[in-house]
């Protein structure tokens, strides 16, 4: 597939092909704290065209409030309703499993304000209280992995039916001083594999891309912005990650566009079995 020059040009030339957009954030609009070329111009175009859009993020240790602040400091103006975080989806799990008010142990940072508490959970990080908790939420960073992971593994041996909630399903994410940092999804799968070897079956509840919970929230918000139902084929998912953005968008029936400004290189696209509808060099 030959990449097209830019998403901005395509939208200009095909104004009636889509009714709404889902945009990844990191690797598409920003890289860390740096605004990527064309991101502010794209958001201005979407507003001029009156095209509803939401920004999807698997950032598991920053609340939507913190994410908006980072985007604003990068020169991008975003409203709270336009941020759909993997942490948002905890609320639907709390409601569907009747967990409101239940005590959960949190591994690592879960944002400020804490999205697990916002969802209705009573959160603790005290390992001595873990055995009395209803389940575990895996955040990111800022915890002593060895004692926490060991204690959590043994907790699930005793409580194999307890929920293991994982907002960010990614194995890793880019780090500033290292090449990568192990993410919540990587920790969850490690815990799952150790328990499987022991003979205990625990299945993490993944919430972020490419899993359905975050996409269902995004779809509902787009329909709210539009004021009417929307055909999935009229939604365009734009991201830089084949396995998260493209696979997740395709599972919802969205059209998908891969942007070559983030984690996916053209060489990886050539050998991938996941084929987006479009590929763009830049925004």
Please describe what this structure looks like.
By secondary structure, the protein is an alpha/beta fold. It folds into two domains: 4-58 and 209-282, 3-Layer(aba) Sandwich (Rossmann fold), CATH 3.40.50.1000; 90-206, 3-Layer(aba) Sandwich (Rossmann fold), CATH 3.40.50. Helix content is 35%, strand content 20%. It contains ten helices and 16 strands. It has helices at 7-13, 39-48, 64-73, 90-96, 115-118, 145-158, 184-198, 212-226, 242-251, 266-271, and strands at residues 4-6, 20-24, 30-31, 34-35, 53-57, 83-85, 103-107, 122-124, 135-138, 164-166, 172-174, 180-182, 205-206, 235-239, 255-259, 278-282. It has a seven-stranded parallel β-sheet with strand order 1-16-15-14-2-5-6, sandwiched between helices. Helix 6 (145-158) crosses helix 7. The radius of gyration is 19 Å and the shape is globular. The two termini are 17 Å apart. The model has no long low-confidence stretch (mean pLDDT 94).
* Secondary-structure element series: EHEEEHEHEHEHEEHEEEHEHEHEHE
Q: Please give the radius of gyration in angstroms.
A: 19 Å
Portion of residues within helices: 25-40%
Residue stretches low in confidence (pLDDT < 50, at least 5 long) are: none
Structural class: alpha/beta
- Tell me the major beta sheet: 7 strands, parallel
Number of domains: 2
Overall body shape:
globular
Helix count from the secondary structure assignment? 10
Number of E-state strands: 16
What is the highest CATH level, the class of the largest domain? Answer: Alpha Beta
Question: In what order do the strands lie side by side in the largest sheet?
Answer: 1-16-15-14-2-5-6
Might you state the CATH topology name of the largest domain? Rossmann fold
CATH homologous superfamily grouping of the largest domain: HAD superfamily/HAD-like
